[in-house]
Amino acid sequence: MRGKARRRPTESFNPQPTPDRRQFPFSTSVANTSRDSDASFASSRPSTIGVGRSSELYTDRAHQNSAIRSINTYLSSHSSLLSLKTHPISSAKEITEVLQFLLHQLDYPSTKLEDDLFIILKSLNCPFKVIKSTLRAPNTPHNWPSFLAVIHWLVQIAMYKEHLAANSRSHVENNGMLVYAFNSYLSYIRGDDDSVEALDREFMEKLERERDSVLESVKVLESNFNELSAKAEAMRKGPTEIERLEKERSVLEEDVKKFHAMISEFNQRIEGMEKLLEEKRKELDAKVEERKRIIEENEDLKKRVDEQSFNLRDAERMKRELQAVERDIGEAEAARNSWEEKMWDLDAAIGHKFKELEALSMECNQAARRLKLGNGFQYVLNAEGSTPAQVMGIDYKSTVKPGLESFADDIKKNSMAKLEELISLQQESSELTAKIEGKKNRIAALQSNIDEGRICNVILEEKQLD
Fold this sequence. Notes:
Elements: H1 27-33, H2 38-42, E1 48-49, H3 61-77, H4 92-105, H5 113-123, E2 130-131, H6 144-174, H7 176-190, H8 193-237, H9 241-307, H10 312-371, H11 388-392, H12 396-465
Antiparallel strand pairs: 1-2
Helix pairs in contact: 1-5, 3-6, 4-6, 7-8
Keywords: Cell cycle, Cell division, Centromere, Chromosome, Coiled coil, Kinetochore, Mitosis, Nucleus
Subcellular location: Chromosome, Centromere, Kinetochore; Nucleus
Organism: Manihot esculenta (Cassava)
């Protein structure tokens, strides 16, 4: 029986040599801080790197899209044809190519990614946890967030490295002390003592100027500080800016309200004036029309007068008619004067009668209150009235007369009741009178009987005495 030949281990399981320190300059810190040996990377057990920061943030769809945009922007800025996507997730080959590109940008030459990646991540102190065995399938939904976090972190490291490389020269040029030390050391190496002394004097003068400018700036700042302190103290003691502005706002609001009230009042006045103006315009139009009509009538009359022919007889007739008109006017004025005198007399008589009516109305009101007529109506005289009801202040037919009629009906009813009661009382009185007469007759009869009895007693007593 032939024994089984021992199978040669695969390359991924062969022990890997210790990385060269010149190739990975941070491997010293890794060797000092990590407990895993290089053999652990060659073993089949899954190993982890990093400080254990969770990549759960990269499971969020929105954060994944943001990280992908940042990564693709960086790749496109370096004229790379590589790119990543999440829907669907990029292939394992694309992910490994992106990792190799980023390591190349960080100046880490990599011959075999599955061996070098984790050493580099440890040397850079990557905060995200990645398992070595997941590198075979980094595009699975379970492994993708971790690798996306690592790639995004490497992109940020590369961007920071490029930023430092771009700004290192400007930092050196802006550092005056460094430039002075550099030039002074060069002059010292050359043995040029005069240049060294000149540089020293120039640098000291520059320092003195800067010191003077700093002192002036300090003085200016102190004065500004004192002014600001005084302002702050005044603001603390006095009303604040908000209170002052609120007070001004309240005053302005009151002014605005007053202005609105004035505007509304002016608008009302304007509306009234517009209405009045419209009425005046209508009146003016009517006057204009009337004037036109009068002018036309005058023109017509002028034409008629021009067409007429006057003679002496017509003039005499017109004079007589004018005298008759004047006589009629005089008679009318005399009649008017006489009527005015009569009107004055009537006014005096009316005033006298009105005073009498006032006295009578007071008596009537008192009588109505005593008799309790109606609903307590009262006569209130009105000198401006044109009808009796308006003058008396109450309608007699509709108010007073019904009350008087109802009062008369009540009186009649009461009088009938009293009459019936009187008749019954008279009957009772006659009956009582008859009874009294009967009683009197009986009393008289009894008195006569008593008198007769007394007489008999006297006679008997006399007989007994005899």
